[in-house]
Amino acid sequence: MHACIVTELLGPNVSDLVDDLQKSQTYRLPAGWAKLVAKQLLVAVDHLHQKGIGHGGSFDYVLLE
Question: Domain range spanning residue 63?
Answer without folding.
Answer: 31-65
